[in-house]
C-alpha cells in the first residue's frame, strides 16, 4: 500500500473563494497546504496553523500570508479555443460564421503547415491564456500534425493543463486544409502517440472532427472508432449558426437532426465536448443528456459573429454538463472573465425574450461555477480540478483587487464577497498575480 505523503511544500493563509455548487460562492478564511505532488493536502480554518504544523511535515515549506485585498480562486477552464486563430482576434467580425471562416480563418490556418510559424503563435497563446488565468484549455489546432506536436511540446514546457486535437477536415474545405481520410486518421494517431511519449499527466489528446460540414461520414466514423478504442475525448462544433444548421441538413438529408449525424457516427460519448449548441431542439438535447456529452458555451464568439443567443438555463435545467469557452478567434479575447460577463448578458437577453415569468437569468455565482467546476465536468476533470478540495490538484489563481495598475476601485471597507464581485465585473489579468497548475507556479510573461 502506498504511503500517503504528509510533507507540505507550500501553505497559503487567507481567503479562499470557489463555487463547488451551481449558484453558490463559498468564501472561507482558511489555511491551504500543498504536497510535493501539487495536490491539496489540507484545508483548515484560519486559526489552526500551529495545530497543522504538528500534524504534517513542514520542511522548507513556504508560508504565504495573503493580504486583505487578495484571495485564491480555482483556475479558469476554457473548454473551447482555436490556438491557430489567435493572430486573427478582433478581425473579420463583421462577417457571419461561414463567410468569416472562408475569408479569415482558413487562410490563416493554412500557414500552420510551417511548424516554425506555429511555434511563435502557439507560444503567444499559451502565455496569454495563462496570464489571464486559464489553467486548463481544450484546444483545436490546425490540420497539421507537426504543428500540433509543437503545441503539445510548448504546453508541456509552460506547464498548462491542456487537451489538444489535430483538426480533421476531408471535404467541402479549401485544398490547403483538406486532407485524405487516411492522413486525418494517421495524423490523429501520431498526435496521440506524441502526447503519450511526452509522459505528462497534464496533457491529453482530443479527437477533433472540425464539424459535419467539413468532415465526411467515413472520417467521422473512423474518429469515433478511434475514440472508443482508447477512451479519448472528442470535440467538435454543432448548431452555432442557422445557415450552418441548414447546410448540415442539406449534406445529411436522411439524418433526423444535426445531433443524430454525430450520434450515428459514434461521436457522442461522455467525453465529447460540443461547442455552441445554440439551436438544438428539445429532442437533440435529449440525446445530449442520454449520451452524457458536455456543451461549451462561447458567448463572446456568439455575439461577435452574430451567431445567436445561447440559453444556458435551458441546458442547466436538463442537467447537461455545461462549461464556458473563448472560441478564439470567433471570440476576440482569451479572457475567461469576459466570457463569464457575456454569459450573463446572453442569459439576460433570453430573459427579455421569454414568455415565462419564472425564468431566471444566470447570475455571477453561476457563471463563476461554469468557468471552473462546470468546465472541469465537461472535460472529465472534476475529480482533479475546478474547486478547492483535499486531494484535488492545486490549479489556482492568486487575485489582488488592489494590484499595480488595477482597474478595480475597491474601497478597503468592502466585504470579501463585494471584492470578488468587483474582480468578476471590473478585473483583468493585472489582478491575477500568480497562476498555479498542479501546485507549480507557472510563468506568465
Ligand atoms: Zn470553435
Structure description:
The protein has 445 residues and is α/β, with parallel strands linked by helices. The protein folds into two domains: 7-74 and 386-442, Roll (Urease, subunit C, domain 1), CATH 2.30.40.10; 76-378, TIM Barrel, CATH 3.20.20.140. It is 38% helix and 24% strand. The protein contains 14 helices and 17 strands. It has helices spanning 49-55, 97-110, 115-131, 145-158, 181-198, 217-230, 242-251, 258-264, 282-291, 299-304, 312-317, 336-353, 364-378, 416-426; strands spanning 7-21, 24-34, 40-45, 57-65, 70-74, 76-82, 134-140, 161-165, 167-168, 203-209, 233-238, 272-276, 294-297, 321-324, 396-400, 432-437, 440-442. The strands form three sheets. Strands 6, 7, 8, 9, 10, 11, 12, 13 and 14 form a nine-stranded parallel β-sheet that branches. A four-stranded mixed β-sheet has the order 3-2-1-4. A four-stranded antiparallel β-sheet has the order 5-15-16-17, with no helix packed on it. Strand 16 (432-437) and strand 17 (440-442) form a beta hairpin. It is globular and about 65 Å long. The two termini are 42 Å apart. Bound molecules: zinc ion (ZN). Its cofactor is Zn(2+).
Highlighted features:
single chain, 445 residues, alpha/beta, Urease, subunit C, domain 1, TIM Barrel, 9-stranded parallel beta sheet, 4-stranded mixed beta sheet, 17 strands, 38% helix, globular, binds zinc ion
Amino acid at each position: 500500500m502506498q504511503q500517503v505523503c504528509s510533507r507540505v511544500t507550500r501553505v497559503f493563509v487567507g481567503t479562499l473563494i470557489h463555487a463547488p455548487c451551481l449558484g453558490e460562492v463559498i468564501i472561507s478564511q482558511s489555511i491551504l497546504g500543498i504536497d510535493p505532488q501539487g495536490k491539496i493536502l489540507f484545508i483548515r480554518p484560519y486559526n489552526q496553523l500551529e495545530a497543522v504544523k504538528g500534524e504534517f511535515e513542514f520542511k522548507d515549506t513556504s508560508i504565504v500570508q495573503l493580504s486583505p485585498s487578495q484571495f485564491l480562486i480555482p483556475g479558469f477552464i476554457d473548454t473551447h479555443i482555436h490556438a491557430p486563430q489567435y493572430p486573427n482576434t478582433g478581425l473579420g467580425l463583421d462577417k457571419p460564421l461561414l463567410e468569416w471562416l472562408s475569408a479569415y480563418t482558413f487562410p490563416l490556418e493554412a500557414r500552420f503547415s510551417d511548424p516554425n510559424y506555429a511555434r511563435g503563435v502557439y507560444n503567444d497563446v499559451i502565455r496569454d491564456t495563462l496570464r489571464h488565468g486559464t489553467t486548463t484549455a481544450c484546444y483545436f489546432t490546425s490540420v497539421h500534425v507537426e504543428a500540433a506536436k509543437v503545441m503539445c511540446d510548448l504546453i508541456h514546457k509552460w506547464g498548462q493543463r491542456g487537451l489538444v486535437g489535430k483538426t480533421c477536415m476531408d471535404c467541402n474545405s479549401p485544398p490547403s486544409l483538406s486532407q485524405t481520410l487516411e492522413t486525418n486518421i494517421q495524423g490523429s494517431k501520431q498526435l496521440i502517440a506524441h502526447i503519450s511519449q511526452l509522459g505528462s499527466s497534464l496533457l491529453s489528446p482530443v479527437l477533433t472532427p472540425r464539424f459535419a460540414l467539413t468532415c465526411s461520414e467515413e472520417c467521422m466514423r473512423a474518429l469515433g472508432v478511434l475514440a472508443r478504442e482508447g477512451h479519448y475525448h472528442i470535440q467538435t462544433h454543432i448548431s452555432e449558426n442557422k445557415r450552418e444548421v441548414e447546410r448540415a441538413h442539406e449534406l445529411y438529408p436522411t439524418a433526423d437532426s444535426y445531433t443524430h449525424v454525430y450520434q450515428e457516427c459514434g461521436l457522442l460519448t461522455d467525453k465529447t465536448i460540443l461547442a455552441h449548441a445554440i439551436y438544438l431542439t428539445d429532442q437533440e438535447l435529449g440525446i445530449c443528456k442520454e449520451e452524457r456529452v458536455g456543451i461549451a458555451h462561447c458567448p463572446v464568439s456568439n455575439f461577435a459573429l452574430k451567431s445567436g443567443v445561447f440559453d444556458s438555463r435551458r441546458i442547466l435545467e436538463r442537467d447537461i454538463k455545461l462549461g464556458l469557452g473563448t472560441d478564439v478567434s470567433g471570440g476576440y479575447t482569451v479572457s475567461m472573465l469576459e466570457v463569464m460577463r457575456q454569459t450573463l448578458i446572453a442569459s439576460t437577453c433570453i430573459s427579455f425574450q421569454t414568455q415565462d415569468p419564472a425564468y431566471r437569468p444566470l447570475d455571477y455565482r453561476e457563471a463563476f461555477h461554469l468557468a471552473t467546476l462546470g468546465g472541469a465536468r465537461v472535460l472529465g476533470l472534476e475529480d482533479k480540478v475546478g474547486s478547492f478540495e483535499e486531494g484535488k490538484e492545486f490549479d489556482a489563481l492568486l487575485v489582488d483587487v488592489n494590484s499595480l495598475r488595477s482597474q478595480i476601485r475597491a474601497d478597503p471597507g468592502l466585504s470579501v464577497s463585494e471584492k470578488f464581485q468587483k474582480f468578476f465585473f471590473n478585473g483583468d489579468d493585472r489582478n491575477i498575480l500568480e497562476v498555479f497548475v498542479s501546485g507549480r507556479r507557472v510563468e506568465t510573461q
